[in-house]
Amino acid sequence: MSELGVGRPTKRRAGSAVGGLPVADSRPVLDGDAVLGSRCTVCRYPTAQQHLPWCPVCYASTEPARFARTGRTWSSTVVAIPVGTRRPPFGLAYVDLDDGPRVLVHLGEPAVLEIGTRLEITGADDGDLVATSEVQR
């Protein structure tokens, strides 16, 4: 009898940090006063991923785009378990950027925000976008 899981194929790649192949990081990137991403050249669909070869909606080509750092909360939660290096409690929110896509951000304070609360992306922490309420500033 073999050990459970030994020899099983997996869809996960180990990543270059542990000797595997490089894995693309799909998290949004903050560049000064804008979130970097792509926009479809035909249907104008925005996405916070850079270098997409085609639009996920209509399959046309995309072009680089810069989006505002401000937007409105679509949803938020407080996480009560440790995730990676983050220790609870910490807040997460989806933000609909004013002129672009919906992005996931870490909140400056662990709180559940009312839908529609104005947020501004103020920086990045370990590769994740961080936002605070425009009222708190």
From TrEMBL:
Pfam families: OB_ChsH2_C. InterPro entries: ChsH2_C, NA-bd_OB-fold. Residues 68-122 form the ChsH2 C-terminal OB-fold domain. This is ChsH2 C-terminal OB-fold domain-containing protein.
